[in-house]
Amino acid sequence: MHRRLPTAFVTVALLALLGLTSAQGVVNVYSARHYDSDTTLFEAFTEATGIEVNLIEAGADELIQRILSEGANSPADVIITVDAGRLWRADDAGILAPVESDALEAAIPANLRHPDGHWFGLSQRVRGLVYSSDRVDPAELSTYEDLATDAWRDRVCVRSSTNIYNISLTASVIASAGVDAAQAWADGIARNLARSPQGGDTDQIRAVAAAECDVAIVNHYYLARLIASSDPADQAVVAAVGMFFPNQEDRGTHVNISGAGVVATAPNRENAIRFIEFLATPEAQEVFAKANHEFPAVEGVAVSEAVAGFGTFRTDELNVAAVGENSAEALRVMDRANWP
Ligand SMILES: [Fe+2]
Predict the structure, then answer these.
(1) 219 C-alpha to center of ligand 1: Å?
(2) Which of 325, 291, 327 is nearest to 118 (CA)?
(3) How far does the centroid of ligand 1 lie from the alpha carbon of residue 13, in Å?
(4) Which of 19, 69, 132, 255 falls between 20 and 30 A from 317, CA-CA?
(5) What fold, for 126-254+320-336?
(6) Same topology for domains 25-124+255-302 and 126-254+320-336, yes or no?
(7) Nearest CA-CA partner of 270 in 105, 26, 72
(8) CA 90 to ligand 1 center in whole angstroms
(9) What pLDDT is recorded for position 328?
(10) Mean pLDDT by 10 residues, the chain (340 residues)
(11) pLDDT score for 23
């Protein structure tokens, strides 16, 4: 017995040595998220595991196309996107593989991940209403559906219907009330627009502050960014508006995710799973979510100061997979509504 100890020790030492060089290997991450703190987080993963992270950044649709064209030889292990609709597109294209992970199933609420583990939500983005503090009493606000009524004629700002956040929101209305109700809703929103859609969500918030419209449908982090900004012009915008989270009395506010999936052809599948599990640890969750003033996917993790100021509210418990499933129908609904 005593003689075997040195042998075991040598084996362990040899494995450790290999680990420092190449045995732990790499994980190739294709990411549509572009935040400096994500890179810091990936370095922490390397430090903790010895696994090198190779990062390729591009838009989600471009990354999906790239993986498709690389085919079986794709080096991609993990794909990260910033919308459930795009994770659904990736899955629909057949480039994601199911993952069974007790750690991920325990950490991430069931509605924020694919039912069979094809992808996992890692942060939450909430599509709320930013209103003019001068011209709107928050007591007048209630639901997305109410914004389609005549009370809001020529008062609503929202970006174009080609934007995936609006496609996902419309898809969630279809999931909750059916296509006919979603059509009536989209018709009403298109009718109530204060101006033809232009710019991104931040532009809609600025338009409310500039009295071009009274209420805007935007992701919460765009307002959080302005709140965290030291630019006096941003602070003037913040002073003129308020944040409202609709549908508190029924299904809850529409929530979307940024998330990750393991690529079906991943050459480093085990490392890919470890990478996503790492991103779901409380420590990583805090950094990942705070990078863009998002809400963590994992409960009990701290949010940014600006986001903490929004208080607590209910989000829709619909599985975000339903958003992807209804996205093609949502596009047809918005098209018929002449939502530009
Ligand atoms: Fe965004």
Answers:
(1) 7
(2) 325
(3) 47
(4) 132
(5) D-Maltodextrin-Binding Protein; domain 2 (3.40.190)
(6) yes
(7) 26
(8) 19
(9) 94
(10) 42 45 80 93 96 97 97 97 92 97 98 97 97 98 98 98 94 97 98 97 98 98 98 98 98 96 98 98 95 96 97 95 94 97
(11) 53
292 CA → ligand 1 middle, Å: 9
At residue 299, the pLDDT reads 94
Which residues make beta-bridge pairs with 30? 56, 79
Distance from residue 274's CA to the centre of ligand 1 (Å): 27
Find the 258 Cα to ligand 1 centroid distance in Å. Answer: 10
Tokens describing residue 22: 């190449």
Residues 6+ apart with CB under 8 A from 275: 27, 29, 45, 51, 53, 77, 78, 260
Distance in Å, CA 72 to ligand 1 centroid: 31
> In sequence order, what E strands does the chain have?
26-31, 52-57, 78-81, 96-97, 120-132, 156-157, 215-219, 241-244, 255-263, 295-296
For 70-82, how does the pLDDT look when each residue is reduced to its tens digit (9 = 90+)?
999 999 999 999 9
Rounded-to-integer distance, Cα 242 and Cα 310, Å: 10
Residue 254 CA to residue 315 CA, distance in Å, equals 6
Going from the Cα of 202 to the center of ligand 1, the distance in angstroms, rounded, reads: 9
CA angle 80, 85, 88 (to 5 degrees): 75
Identify the pLDDT of residue 137. 98
Residue 197 phi, psi dihedral angles, 5° rounding: -55, 135
Residue closest to 33 by CA, chosen among 78, 1, 71, 80 = 80
Coil/strand/helix, residue 219:
strand
**Residue listed under structure tokens 């750690």:** 103
> Which residues, in sequence order, are bridge partners of residue 182?
none
Write down the domain spans for the chain.
25-124+255-302, 126-254+320-336
What is the fold, at CATH topology level, of the domain defined by 25-124+255-302? D-Maltodextrin-Binding Protein; domain 2 (3.40.190)
